[in-house]
Amino acid sequence: MIIFAAMNSIYYSVRMHAECNSRHLSGAERLVLPEQVESVTTDLLLRALQLSPDVVSVSVDKILSEQIEFGAIPSITLMPQVGYEQGRKEAVALLVEAGVTELSALRAIAAIANGASEAGFAMRGAMLVDVCSGERLEKDHTRGVRASRLDLTSAAALSLTTLLQQHDLTHLRTREALVLAAKVLAAPSVVAELCWSDAADYTAGYVASQKTGYCRFAQLKPLGDLRGGRAFFVRPDADLTATIAFLEQTPFLADRHGAIRSLEGRQ
Ligand code: PML
C-alpha cells in the first residue's frame, strides 16, 4: 500500500540516544507529523529510562515533506532454524549471492563477532565495508555510520505489524530493523547489509540486499553475547560522501512492504 505525504507538510525527526558509562545503551528514532511529536518523544524517553542510563539525549528536527525519500521494506524470508555458527555460514552464502565476495563477508562477520569498535565493543553505528576486499571504510571505528531520519508511514506500519504478527514477529526490533534495511538498500552504492543484535537477550540477525530481500535468522550469535552490529557493503567505486550523506541525513519513509515467506521448518 502506498500513502503519499501531503504536499508541503511538515514532519519532525525525533531521535533518542542513551548512554551508560560513556557506552552506547540504546537508540531509536521516528519521523512523525507535528501532532505526534509529544507522544513519540515521551515513548522514546520512557524506553531509554527503563535501561537506567547515565545520559539520554532527545533531538527534534523539522523536516519538510519535499525532502523525504519514499521507499519499500524488502520482502522477508524466515531462514531455517539453525545454530548461530551454521547461521553465519548461510549468511555468507547469501552475501555472496548478493554480490559480496566471500573474503569480504567473512571479514565483516569476524569484525562484528570480535566487537567492531576500537575497544572491542559493539559500535554505535555501522561499518562501511568494501564489497570486494572487506576493507573497512568508515572513518571512526567506534561511531561508525548511522542510518538515521527514517520511519514508515502510519498505513504501512499498520499493515506491516499485522503481517509480522501472523508470524509471531512482535518485537519492536524486527520492525525497526526492517525500516533501517529499507533505507540502507536505497542508499547509493550499497550492495547489502549484514546485522545481528548487540542486545544480550536477542540473538536474531539478517542479511538484506536487493537480490535476496531481508533474510532473517533467529540466531546469529550465542545468547548473552553483547557483541553485535551492522556492516553496510559498498561498491569499491562508491562516492562515500554521498552514501554517508544519504544514510545519515536524507529523511526516508517506507510507504510499502513485501510479503513474508517462511523456510523455518526446513533444515
Ligand atoms: C537490533 O536492533 O538489535 C538489531 C536487530 C536485528 C534483528 C531484527 C529482527 O529481525 O528481529
Summarize the structure.
It contains six helices and 13 strands.
Characterise this structure.
This protein folds into two domains: 2-67; 70-262, no CATH class. Helix content is 29%, strand content 29%. The protein has helices spanning 37-49, 84-98, 102-113, 154-166, 172-186, 240-249, and strands at residues 10-20, 23-32, 55-64, 69-73, 76-78, 127-130, 150-152, 190-196, 205-209, 213-217, 229-234, 252-257, 260-262. It has a seven-stranded mixed beta sheet, sandwiched between helices. The protein is globular, with a radius of gyration of 18 Å. The two termini are 33 Å apart. The model is unreliable at 1-6 (pLDDT under 50). Pimelic acid (PML) binds at residues 171, 173-174, 176-177, 195, 197-199, 202, 204-206, 216.
